[in-house]
């Protein structure tokens, strides 16, 4: 299994499917591109997930969430991350490592998704408030993946 | 007149008052901080506008908008900026130069404002579509100023 | 003439050839990749220069330099940019708009080049100190183009 | 013990003293400011280390290094981080979370330090190659702290 497949599986294991993210991409872009299909969103998303720096960001964020769940991160950091403290900021920094690569449309979409929390993003956020579940990094990563795929589609579309 | 006052006056000349931006800051933060006042938002905004790199970004963005209005920018760039082409991207880059300094809450708020375009931001965007008026940089700058002031308030609040 | 060719010509008109930048890329990467050729550096650089957001950043930076030379930018900004004031900061912000897209190796190389100013970068910097010549944005843009091409080569190389 | 003191102690525990970083700041700035003293560098550095987002970045980076040393991070990520794989990129992303706040001079200095690895930065890098020792994040964090303090001094100096 290569790193790309490993990353898709890891997201799945943490409760996030490709379809969960692709539908957010679709909702972001349908107001700008009438003819857009969910398939195009899935293709764009998979290309984002094929980039090395994206894979590294996704795996690092999930590894931190898991280390917190397994109580393998020291205090006071453990408590800050476990409570998804709004001024922690490092979860967004990691997500920006993804968004950066996809230009300014990705930035705008990221901020919007992080604030509105549609679909799976809102679900991850709620589940993360339960004991033994930490999604502090995962919800921002999903925002970044969707925002980046949407930016990729916007750029590709204008090239036709 | 110092650079700070010059910048406030320049914004005013371009149709944006301190109050226009402060009300956006207030609307962003009132859901998180019950006791917030418009005065606090104004104070935070003025402190943002006192930073050297912020002043440089504001003045540079406005100077480009004006150079485009005065037809002092060459083609093909003139057309790209005059039409506020959605894939231009440099207006957001300049705005991120402001937002960067105020951390990840500023990023999220910036994306949200750039997408939702509340109040003066939407007005600037509409006016910019008229002949002889270019707000390609100014609307993003106002988003960045409001987002940064909101982030400053969030950080200060948690310190009390 | 398409936008890509227009941009290459514009750089040439401002005193910067593809070869001038490619040799910097070569010098950056030869310590890491024994077998690297100048041709590979040229190819990577041309691919960087083919990206829309890169083209927009290059053209915007040069347009500002030219507006300053033609005294079409207002004071106090004119004086700040004309003197390449070290705390101006917006020249680097625009360059980071390019570097961002090419990941963290591009960042590191950018900072190094901006500090060391090898070859054409140093020449642009010196020439810019003359009357009627402004290279405040151009030298940072050349740093960003070289740093991004070097990062692209590093990523491609490791994929083989 | 507050978070600031905790962070200073944690750096010390990982082999990095305030003096180790302050001397790098001094070496960066002495060519620009004749009258600079090591004390000023120490004061600027301590103010950087007092910022919440800086503290979070430092503690998160060190926690990852330690989790890797303790084999509490899963493969394939463990191997990538343990070997300080040059295309990993997330160590620089985290460091940029610090540098971002201090503007463009901080960016330039960061790239320079990350490439030249003076003093403690080179030592951390070498030690990190030993078994049971991981400094993948720590060396970039030290670069970021020194670069940010140098930028702070440059900005303060010009205000006098």
Overview in brief:
The structure is a homotetramer of 160-residue chains. With 160 residues, chain A is mainly α.
Describe the structure.
With 160 residues, chain A is mostly helical. The first copy, chain A, contains nine helices and no strands. In chain A, helix 3 packs across helix 9 and helix 6 (90-99) runs parallel beside helix 9 (138-159). Chain A starts with a helix and ends with a helix. Chains in contact: A-B, A-C, A-D, B-C, B-D, C-D.
Largest contact between protein chains?
Answer: A-D, 27 and 27 residues
User: How would you describe the shape of chain A?
Assistant: globular
The span between the termini of chain A is: 35 Å
Query: What composes the largest sheet of chain A?
Result: none
Which quaternary structure do these chains form?
Answer: homotetramer
Uncertain spans of chain A: none
Q: Evaluate the radius of gyration of chain A.
A: 15 Å
Q: What are the secondary-structure elements of chain A, in order, as H or E?
A: HHHHHHHHH
Strand content of chain A: under 5%
């Amino acid at each position: 299994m290569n790193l790309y497949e490993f990353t898709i599986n890891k997201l799945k294991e943490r409760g996030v499917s490709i379809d969960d993210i692709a539908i957010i991409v679709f909702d972001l872009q349908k107001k700008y591109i009438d003819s857009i299909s969910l398939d195009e969103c899935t293709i764009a998303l998979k290309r984002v997930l094929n980039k090395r720096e994206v894979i590294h960001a996704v795996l690092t964020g999930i590894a931190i969430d898991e280390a917190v769940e397994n109580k393998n991160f020291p205090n006071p950091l453990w408590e800050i991350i476990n409570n998804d403290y709004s001024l922690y900021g490092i979860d967004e920094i990691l997500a920006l490592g993804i968004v950066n690569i996809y230009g300014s449309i990705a930035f705008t979409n990221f901020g919007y998704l992080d604030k509105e929390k549609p679909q799976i993003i809102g679900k991850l956020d709620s589940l993360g408030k339960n004991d033994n579940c930490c999604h502090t990094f995962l919800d921002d990563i999903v925002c970044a993946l969707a925002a980046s795929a949407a930016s990729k589609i916007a750029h590709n579309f204008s090239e036709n």
